[in-house]
Amino acid sequence: MTANIQSTVAKSPESAPSLERTAWGLRGTAGVTIAARLGFEGVTHHYGSEVSLRGIDLLVEPGEVVSLLGRSGCGKTTLLRVTAGLEMPSGGRVTINGREIAGPKTHVPPEKRGIGLMFQDYALFPHMTILKNVIYGLASTPRAEAERQGHRALARVGLEGFASAYPHELSGGEQQRVALARAIAPRPSVLLMDEPFSGLDKRLRDHVRDETLAIIRETRATCIIVTHDPEEAMRMSDRIALMRSGRLLQIGTARDLYERPIDLYAARFFSEMNEFNGVVSHGGVETPAGIVDAGTRSEGSAVTVGIRPQGVRLGGEGVPGRVVGHRFLGEVDLYDVAVDGSDVPVKVRTRGPLPYGVGDTVSIALEARDVLVFDKVSQ
Ligand SMILES: Nc1ncnc2c1ncn2[C@@H]1O[C@H](COP(=O)(O)OP(=O)(O)OP(=O)(O)O)[C@@H](O)[C@H]1O
Questions:
Q1: What is the structure's pLDDT at 29?
Q2: More confident residue, 117 or 5
Q3: From atom 17 of ligand 1, which residue's Cα is the shortest distance away?
Q4: What phi and psi values does residue 306 have, to the nearest 5 degrees?
Q5: Res 376: pLDDT
Q6: What is the pLDDT of residue 315?
Q7: Residue 59 clears pLDDT 70, i.e. is over it
Q8: What are phi and psi of 192, to 5 degrees?
Q9: For residue 9, is pLDDT > 50?
Q10: Which residue owns the Cα nearest ligand 1 atom 10?
């Protein structure tokens, strides 16, 4: 299900102007909802004997967009499914505006939660027209009104000309837009999106993300987006909830998580790292890349120092090394610099190439803001 602009145009039904197929609808025309506060208190979940959620506490403010970020299997989708009512929590509770929708004795059915869902595979019904797909969640609304809302949602995603088409006639990108229109048509107060962009061609993805975010903001829905892509999380959300092994490891703004990651695992999520173990001595830690400030770590404690490759400068004063690798990556260049005391070369990321080649002697120096010191980790 790859989507690209060419296939988009090629598949246009004759009745529809092909140019419109890449343009989204007018901004400000998505239906507005009353945003809700979504709460999780000690939410746990098991699949049989396997624990998938281990006590999730999280409050998502009305109209806030929060990304659930984490590696495969950490429980992101399960938390979304518990919220939607597709899974029952084993413990804890989920609330909307303080009202319990899932708890030890409560299970509000999915269709009564006022929640819009968008799945990774879009989950469109192949035998239904696009309009029927979009108004699927409006079963209790009078038909004419449901169709009016459906057309409006389709217009907002720029697909009003495709109401009577079928999903297979649309590209992946267009199907994504239909899924979005379906999710917003009932004006849900909470919108849940599970990897909504993962099926899209990379060239389309940024544009689709921006348009989708504009629609989310317009609807004012409270939104949770599941992703395993840190850049996507940073781009899309007000706050990021980083998950690991069924737990919320850290929650904060993109800047919080990038600048003050709670541990090395969190730091690794947002950047490649040069990592060295060391011991705090006289307020500093000696590493093969230079001495770094130990911050508040106590004297004699074992630490792991993480250094972002973009925080290593080449040239000038610093620790001597030798360039053992150089790759051109377009916007940046990546150098590998061998230094005494480390079997692994120091990775250095520069904006554009520098006048050094493999075999050259260089010196390296560290930018303090790209140096992070954590308790020593074994892995
Ligand atoms: N239907 C199921 N039956 C049994 N175990 C499951 C089921 N669904 C998920 N799991 C397990 O529960 C854990 C959490 O899965 P979940 O799908 O929530 O993670 P995720 O972070 O969304 O992963 P992904 O990014 O791969 O979708 C994993 O260990 C997974 O193997």
A1: 62
A2: 117
A3: 77
A4: -110, 130
A5: 87
A6: 87
A7: yes
A8: -115, 125
A9: no
A10: 47
> If you measure from the C-alpha of residue 244 to the centroid of ligand 1, how many angstroms do you get, rounded to a whole number?
12
Please compute, for residue 53, the number of CA atoms within 13 A of its CA located in the half-sphere on the CB side. 27
Q: Label the pairing between strands 115-118 and 361-366.
A: unpaired
Pairwise CA distance, residues 61 & 189, whole Å: 11
Residue to mutate (ligand 1; options 49, 53, 54, 76; most atoms within 8 A of CB): 76
**Phi and psi, residue 55, nearest 5°:** 85, 75
Report the separation in Å between the CA atom of 232 and the middle of ligand 1, taken as the mean of its atom positions. 21
**77 touches ligand 1 (CB under 6 Å):** yes
Segment 228-239, tens digit of pLDDT? 999 999 999 999
Pocket test for ligand 1, best of 43, 45, 47 (most atoms within 8 A of CB): 47
Centre a 10 Å sphere on the Cβ of residue 371 and count the other Cβ atoms it contains: 21
Test site for ligand 1: of 50, 82, 244, most ligand atoms within 8 A of the Cβ: 50
Can you list the domains of the chain with their CATH numbers? 5-259 (3.40.50.300), 271-375 (2.40.50.140)
By DSSP bridging, strand 190-194 and strand 222-227 are: parallel
Ligand 1 in reach of 74 Cβ (< 6 A): yes
Average pLDDT of 11-29? 49
Q: How far apart are CA 122 and CA 232, in angstroms?
A: 18
Residue 116 has pLDDT above 70, yes or no: yes
Asked whether 345 lines ligand 1 (CB < 6 A), one says: no
DSSP letter assigned to residue 131: H
Q: Both tokens of residue 28?
A: 């400000």
- Amino acid present at 346: V
* For ligand 1, atom 24: residue with the closest CA: 72
Which pair of tokens denotes residue 135? Answer: 């108004």
Report pLDDT for 379. Answer: 55
Is the pLDDT score of 7 beyond 60?
no
Q: pLDDT higher for 254 or 378?
A: 254
Q: Is 86 in the pocket of ligand 1 (CB under 6 A)?
A: no
Give 348-376 as a DSSP string.
Answer: EEESS--S--TT-EEEEEE-GGGEEEEE-
At residue 301, what are phi and psi to the nearest 5 degrees?
Answer: -80, 145
CA 195 to ligand 1 center in whole angstroms: 14
